[in-house]
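This part of the workshop introduces the protein records we will be handling. A record pairs a protein's sequence with a compact description of its fold. As an example, a complete record with its sequence and its structure tokens follows.

_____
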Amino acid sequence: MKRTLACLGAVAAVTVGMITVSPAAQASTGCSASTKYYDTAGYYTDVPTAGNRGTNFCSLRRGASNDAVYELQITLNQCYGENTGGFDGQFGPSTESALRRVQGKLGLDADGVYGPNTRDALKWAWRNMAGNHRCLRLTEAPGPLRDQ
């Protein structure tokens, strides 16, 4: 009987833990690269990922320095007119402030941390080979999307 109760208690604890883990906590892996996504209309965008062609369930915050930050800076500037302090791939105070402002405009928790909720809410900078640009959420692009 004690063993059964102990097992049930362990299962309940794990279940509660799975339910209460926030998307930010799920995105504990840092974004370190970007992956190019193509839509069926011939446009492409670069989305931060954990490694080349890795998961896009990753996070960026102040102190990060890589291609993923560069792509976020491009999107914040081109689609939201935000000054990130340049396109240097450095997640510093200017990039954090720009991200906070955009998160606030999108109705998100303006914590200055990029994660899955921010990824899904952002309109990304899309371009094509002819030099045309547009800003669309990943779910708004003509699909299905494919990565390369």
User: Anything to note?
Assistant: Residues 2-20 form the longest helix (19 residues). The longest strand covers residues 33-38. Confidence is low (pLDDT under 50) at residues 1-27.
